[in-house]
Amino acid sequence: MLELLSYDFMQRSLLAAALVGALCSVIGVFVVLRGLAFVGAGTAHAAFAGVALAYLIGFPPLPLAILFGLATVWVTGIMEEQGRMKLDVSIGILYTATMALAILFIGLMKTYNAEVYGYLFGSVLSVTSDELDIILALSCLVLGIIVLFSKELYFIAFDQEMAEASGVPARRMYYLLLTLIALTMVVSLKTVGAILVFAMVLIPASTAYQLTHSLSHMTAYAVVIGTASAVGGVLLSYVWDVPTGPAIVLLATAIFFGSVLFSPKRLRRMTA
Amino acid sequence: MAHSIVRFEHATFGFSGVIALKDVTLEITSGEFVGVIGPNGSGKTTLCKAILGLMRPLAGTLQIFDCSCEKLQCYHRAKIGYLPQKGTIDRNFPITVLETVMMGRYGVLGLLKRPRKADRDIALETLSHVGMLDHRHDALGQLSGGQQQRVFIARALAQQPQVLLLDEPTTGIDIVTQHSVLDLIKRLHQDLGLTIVLITHDINMIRLHVDRLVLLKTKLYAAGPPADVLKPDILSQVYGKDLVITDKDVVIVEDYHHHA
């Protein structure tokens, strides 16, 4: 087991998985509390469409993934704010439209490109050191912003109207949160893929939600669970020779069901 | 010397083509205890949003503190402690009582400033004001409706506001708790010298406690001491003749919404 850690690729994948696991679970706390789960899923697919377009026209994938992701969350936010459409409807439309775009872009490619599919299903074991640098930089940026604005982000997650009434620039903070969700999706595309990243955002935070009635504890638990299942999943996938993305997600899911069974909140409700 | 907290001058409010409040002229000065009454849909909550600067007048002017409401900044809003109408809170939302009250400090502190021990002390002090200090580590969702209401009042107080704006603070809680919440509000008014604006549909509950009543029904029907406002001829204009019965000091306005 230990010799495993001496491989360069293994060190890179473990570090990438740990970073993405931590980042997704922190943003997941706000996603779960503010009820933005669907936004996360939609953005990941939009970012994937950006990647597909980049491969089609021979562009670097990162800028286009960011562009598509940000455009999707902002359009959704504006449509919701103007009361034209419910959030789940507009994101549902953009979700499928961007996925259709992605399939279109892939179809237009003259040759089969396996790398594109790496962004759909994730390939943490093939993360290059350049990619790791980008993941590291973007993770630090997003986590740094979350730390700086954590009190405002918690407040709007709890009650946005109340936050605004008591002097927090709630609207701007909401757009900041949407932006951070989009960036998190982009960072995670390469490692866990557009489909499974959604699980990395939702599962650790929902697991932590079962375990505590304190905001700060929930965040701490989510980070520990997210990082542990990401790292554990990579190791399991290597040891059992199974795909990494599913290994991470299924491990996290197992922890989630364990937490549901042993949730102190649930147990208290049963005894009450 | 009492100074002006809010001043409406011929202010009209509405949204998407519907006028919610028309031509309101009203001044609330510091240290007052004002009750705002009126039937459902009479514009009480609109008045509340206006005072918070979240709704601009379509016509007329609104001055909040020393500032016209168009120019209102976040730090102005932080000087108004607001208790929203009791909604249903998610009982499983993971937040403790102290974490809830600390949120009252967030707007006051402003962006990029971390809450410090002084802020925590303020939160603890307000919790003791409302008699909930012992519950500070409890889950908010596990408290009773009246206890939650106390915690939300503590959160508003943690802003160290000049005004406490309460939207239906006694609705949806049992009658004993209603009285204890009202006693608490009265005590805060007397002990801390807070200006109180209390919105309610329950006239009998507050008529003995307020300095002034404001009667709304899409416009301002009357404003003044309770004895001047609670007159049969004024009330029947708002509530309809059959619904108002006055007997000596007791005013009965039948709550026809519950019968509808």
Structure explained in plain terms:
The complex is a heterodimer of chains A (272) and B (260). Chain A is 84% helix and 0% strand. Chain A has 272 residues and is mainly alpha-helical. The radius of gyration of chain A is 19 Å and the shape is globular. Chain B is an alpha/beta fold and 260 residues long. In chain B, strands 6-7-8-3-9-10 form a six-stranded mixed β-sheet, sandwiched between helices. In chain B, strands 2-1-4-5 form a four-stranded antiparallel β-sheet, covered by helices on one side. In chain B, strands 11-12 form a two-stranded antiparallel ribbon. The radius of gyration of chain B is 19 Å and the shape is globular. Chain B has two domains: 1-79 and 162-231, Rossmann fold, CATH 3.40.50.300; 89-160, no CATH class.
- The total of helices of chain A stands at 11
CATH H level, superfamily name of chain A:
ABC transporter involved in vitamin B12 uptake, BtuC
Task: Please give the largest β-sheet of chain B.
Answer: 6 strands, mixed
Tally the beta strands of chain A. Answer: 0
Strand arrangement across the biggest beta sheet of chain B: 6-7-8-3-9-10
Name the CATH architecture of the largest domain in chain B.
Answer: 3-Layer(aba) Sandwich
Classify the fold: give the CATH topology of chain A: ABC transporter involved in vitamin B12 uptake, BtuC
Relative helix content of chain A: over 70%
CATH class of chain A: Mainly Alpha
> What is the straight-line distance between the termini of chain A?
46 Å
Quote the average pLDDT of chain B.
Answer: 89
Shape field of chain B: globular
